[in-house]
Amino acid sequence: MTTLILNGEERQVTSEPDTPLLYVLRDELELNGAKFGCGLGQCGACTVLVDGEPVFSCVTPVLLMNGRDIRTVEGLGTVAAPGPLQAAFIEEQAAQCGYCIAGMLLRAQALLVRVPDPQDDDILAALEPQLCRCGTHMRIIRAVKRAARTLSRAAEAVR
Amino acid sequence: MSPALSRRDVLRGTGALILAFSVPHRSSALTETGASATPLRGLPGSLDSTPRLNAWIRIEADGNATIFTGKAELGQGIKTALLQIAAEELKLPLPRITLITADTARTPNEGYTAASHSVQDSGTAIRNAAAQVREILIGEAARLAGRSTDGLKAWDGVVAGPDGLSLGYGELVSAQLLNVDAQPTSILTDPKNFTVMDRPVARVDIPPKLTGGAAYVQDMRLPGMVHGRIVRPPSYGARLIDLDAAPVEAMPGVLKVVRDGAFIGVVAEKQWTAIQAMRRLAASARWNESAALPDEAQLPEALMALPAKDTTILEVGTPDAASYDVDALFSRPYLSHGSIGPSCAIAHMDGDDLTVWTHTQGVYPLRDALATLCAMPRDKVRCIHVEGAGCYGQNGADDVGADAALLARALPGRPVRVQWMREQEHAWEPFGPGMAAHVRASLGPDGSISAWQHDVWSQSHMMRPGPPGTLLAARDIANPFPPAPPVDLPMPEGGGDRNAVPLYVLPNARAVNHFLPQMPLRGSSMRSLGGYLNVFAIESTMDDLARLSGQDPVAFRLRHLRDERASAVITLAAERFGWNGRPTLSAGSGYGFAFARYKNLEAYCAIALELAIDQDTGRTVVQRAIAAVDTGQVVNPDGVRNQIEGGIVQATSWTLFEGVRFDRQRITSVDWASYPILRFAHVPRRVEVHLVERPGLPFLGAGEAAQGPMGAAIANAIRDITGTRLRALPLDAAKVRAASKVRPASMGSPLPPRSPS
Fold first, then answer.
1. N or C terminus: fewer CB in 10 A for chain A?
2. What general EC class does the enzyme of this chain belong to (chain A) (predicted)?
């Protein structure tokens, strides 16, 4: 038995301890966000946040996740109430097939926490581990910048 | 000859996919979408093969509409475009329309979703069907009101008249009203009155994809579903000698090991168990390997040495010259589709009925292949398209459908989900074929092209189901199906020779297609087919001819064109780029330009770009790429931009990085480390797409327009910077670095003047 804090909620899982987190999320917890792409930590389709840091869930055994805070794209928002990054990706129509996008969103989320006003080079460097095959890169970059603007405006308003 | 005998005959003495055939006559070959090349009824788009209006459109009692298309969403926004078309002509708001895509039990048979044909085929059918349905509803309103149709208008789901008549579509429709065949002509909405069809409508499929919705076949979870994995052979045609299945069958959670000849699968309750079981099975399997692959380092020579069936596809004037100003061999390696999500299918054997959920491009052809493979009647097999990860041609989708079907048949009653592993997709998908093209060209005294010859060598670009032998599993089972005969796609669209006929006006020209019936590596359709290499070769040669004669590359192209729409995109791209006033750049930076009309029948695309090379590393980055595109009537401008941007970035990846690797027996590029593709560090720093508006003109496919011009524009910029013409794709860092160190005298003519010419 492993205890995860999944998108803010405590969840007990029974998968074998050597099971990669990806299969626990998809098959035991029935979440769709994290995708199987390579199983080798090369493409980033399975990226989730663990204690705020992007991690390849396809090569991370669930036994290492006990008590850790795990965030998937389901934790960023919903169709009815998309989070700022999701809203920006919809606004920019930053998807073609979309299979890589959940990983992109989480990698971008980690970047915006660290660098609220990222320049192009920051975005390129942060997203380097994530592969996209449809060639949606230009829109993904624009969407991350748009989300950064939204978030900084929101922060201004609070101040 | 019985099928069994022919199978044995074909298999005797060969263990690989390298097989020779009597090639069917070219004109009898398939088109890339599987549609008949000659119209049956003279009806618009796919109405020609499925004329009944209620096969495409049903109006419900509440006045909402359901649209049926035989095409599938491949991640390019086709659902949204078809909904826009239906909404425009039905005069019904988008949210009141539901779209059902490719399903052998429900939708028309529109062959394959391929070749940038979906908006042309299905969009045209739906547009005309919707317009005719709207007129039928108006006629019905008139009949019910006992008046003429004069002054009646359909709008917002209601037929209304000046005298207060107002009848909702739901009130007008009756069971048989739309059970009629389409007419050859329709009253289509004038483009100047469009309210949705030319607008950038947000794609309906995007929000669930960004929030963890069940958006892909990979996300489906059926009650009682179990997980299968396949053990594939180590190389083409390998035969299984020995397998120790007992320890795997004893693993907790393993339900079944399926073995049929060299086809090995395992089914388990949990996915991770299935993967571990697959690995243990693979470790215990012993194989007899017989594949003999060509020498990767000499691929173009190996291809050109194969037996070929030659077709002269262009012959005009006297193309033979005593000598040529350009005489060059261009080549591309085999390319992976490289979808980020490996192929996946779910199959369910329920009594006598087999259902397969699949991201195939052709539900009907796959259904037929699976029925033959499983020896079942066609009407007992149903294929339902569910979106997969990006589809750029025939990837493992059909194969994994067959894998799942065979496992489901062995475990009746349980839906079996099979997903390929990354290394299986990389090693076993049908690649975009390796190719060679030889171009010779001469300039006349007036600086125009006086002679032109183009020879292209390629295997088939069309090895899709129908025939069961196109499927890996059907070749591996103990009583295998014969390999499918290679299809030589005919002109005008062509296969390996796609775009081998230049659009330029050439008084003396020849083009010859050397079709290779043998297939050294497994191959099939990949975006633009032969167009990518042929445009690369033609546009590189145009650039060299312009340089040799001191002419501006843009002006040189324009003087050889008579097609006004071609000239318009070239002129627009050059203007928006600032081509004529472009400044001289510092060492390591330069410019490239290229143009093509995809298939010489579809979208026009011209690209001007600026490129920078790090001369120490050979690292190449596109600084800006400016594209101009004409796709006829645009349905969704943002959708077209998204496709062209994507084509530019994907072709940048093909051109700078990609090539399938292999030794003399096995494919060795089996992951993203051994088959690198473009990552963010190499994305173009700026991309602009400018659309030429052509309201009312026929739809032209956009998904494959940019790939050819982009590859050539990059090569032309590298030539501009280094003075060296690179002709063997990919133009990777090692080649670019080597090119940066030499400035050969042969082609080292001074750069043309950078002023308007």
1. C
2. oxidoreductase
